[in-house]
Known about the structure:
By secondary structure, chain A is of the alpha+beta class. Chain A contains six helices and seven strands, in the order H-E-H-E-E-H-H-E-E-H-E-E-H.
Amino acid sequence: MEITQFQLDALREIGNIGSGHAATALSTLLQRRIDMSVPKVWAVPFEEVSSIVGQLDTPQAVIYVKVEGEASGKAVFFFPLKSAEIVVQALFGTNAPMDLYMGEMEQSALKEVGNILVSSFLVALTQFSGIPLQPSVPALAVDMIGASLDAIFLEEGVLDDTVLFIDTRITGIPKIEGQFIFLPDDGSLKKLLEAMGV
Amino acid sequence: MNGIITVGMADFKTATAPVLLSTAGLGSCIGICIHDPFLKIGGMAHIMLPTANGSLGGNPAKYADTALELLLREISGMGAIKSRLRAKMAGGAQMFSFPGKPPVLKIGDRNAEAVEQELKKHRIPLLIADVGGSFGRTIHFDVGTGELRIRTINHGEKVV
């Protein structure tokens, strides 16, 4: 669907409020002050997502949450491996190298962080739209980014042809970057924007 | 040095040796490789779903059935003879699993089955099927030798 700059600005504002919730939760979890902001939200046609994420066989940590409710969809947070490692190290209070591929502790820590980020955004979306949205249990893949994304695209449900990219900046831990995408199911985005009155 | 031609998602390419056809980051998608060893020509398709279901909309290279037809038409136009063709495929993984919820439909498995069936329909032998698992694959197909190099992040690399 077509989406206007005004609507994108509204979504960015919601993203900022969501990231505020997330920052509070992460600060508590990591016992240090974390700030988060959403500098940019943009909508891209579904087919262009893979060209935006860069090299498709670069390994990244991808946290995938299904969004259930009247405006269902899929929420995905992806971390470059280095950032994912730094987050996990901060969580465990160590500088030792982390095994993101196989380590159970590492993986469940990443899922938890992804869960916080995604849930915070959903809470903000619900506040503004009045449409309750529930996140599923998070799933994690640490693998080629292209492989993780194609699996998410193709899993059950009919996606809208528009995907929202929510650029997330995390400060308070050095050198952390991550990106968040929301893939609304067909019709969900329209419903959300209407309910928000934009 | 061989040239490398990249095949995108829902895309297909054919080439004459010496060329490597490559597609990166296959998850539940499948890379189908077709080879005519006599002419040293080959083709690769990166399919996303099993069947177009007769729908005319959308990109035919996205589906196992229609993509294979496109590939065969183009490679025949280059002189390939169907009875000489050989096929290999890789991909069809299941990248995510949700605890307590059995996956309703494993799209990777369904893709692999669909490719197998379509190849059977066209009587093209499938020499290699490196499918399944829960990891991504990047593949390079040498249209001269018919060798398929399969690279993963954490599950090794092999040439088949």
